[in-house]
Every structure is written in structure tokens, then in C-alpha cells.
């Protein structure tokens, strides 16, 4: 699913519902290279939430990276292909949870 993609977590580890020690191998198993900071040649995907620092968002945007929530990757795994990041409001990194 993520073959050749460069991915960055833009969420503080304590804020993840599933710990990074579970997310990291999953993302890498899907073929992505996972970064802890944005490399000089950029990233393709920023997995983030509303707590993501503005400077990280701005840097990701400068590389035309897809900026999405973890819900996007979860649903993409379920479907077996990368979903359109605009297909659902919950795929937005700053989506607000509703009761």
C-alpha cells in the first residue's frame, strides 16, 4: 500500500490511540520509509492530528505531502488501497470528533 512512500508521524506519541511501537512496524511493512523528522528531500505523507505543530504542517505542505489523519491509513488498510484523502471529513488531520 505504501511502497516507496516517505511517511512522518506528526502526532506526539502519547496522543496516539495505538502506540508508535505498533504503528511503526505496520507502516514499514506496507513498504514505507518512516521518518521522525522531515528529511531534506521531503515526505509524501504526514499522518497527523490537530496537535501537529504548524512548522511541521508548513514543511509538509512545501513538499506537497498528503496531510491526513490516522483514520485515513486505518480505512486504507481495511479497503486494501490508498483512499482519496478528501473522501471523508475524518481523513482530515484536524477533524473534530463528534459524539
Automatic annotation (TrEMBL):
InterPro entries according to UniProt: BRCT_dom_sf, BRCT_p53bp1-like_rpt2, TP53BP1-like
Record Pfam families: BRCT_3 (PF18428)
Annotated GO CC locations: nucleus
GO biological process, any: DNA damage checkpoint signaling
GO molecular function: histone binding
PANTHER family for the chain: TP53-BINDING PROTEIN 1 (PTHR15321:SF3), TUMOR SUPPRESSOR P53-BINDING PROTEIN 1 (PTHR15321)
Protein name as catalogued: BRCT domain-containing protein
Protein's organism: Toxocara canis (Canine roundworm)
Amino acid at each position: 500500500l505504501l511502497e516507496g512512500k516517505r511517511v512522518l508521524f506528526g502526532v506526539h506519541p502519547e496522543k496516539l490511540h495505538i502506540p508508535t511501537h505498533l504503528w511503526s512496524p505496520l507502516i514499514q511493512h506496507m513498504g514505507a520509509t518512516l521518518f521522525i523528522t522531515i528529511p531534506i528531500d521531503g515526505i509524501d505523507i504526514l499522518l497527523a492530528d490537530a496537535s501537529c505543530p504548524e512548522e511541521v504542517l508548513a514543511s509538509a505542505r512545501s513538499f506537497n505531502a498528503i496531510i491526513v489523519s490516522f483514520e485515513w491509513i486505518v480505512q486504507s488498510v481495511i479497503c486494501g488501497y490508498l483512499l482519496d484523502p478528501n473522501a471523508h471529513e475524518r481523513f482530515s488531520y484536524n477533524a473534530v470528533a463528534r459524539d
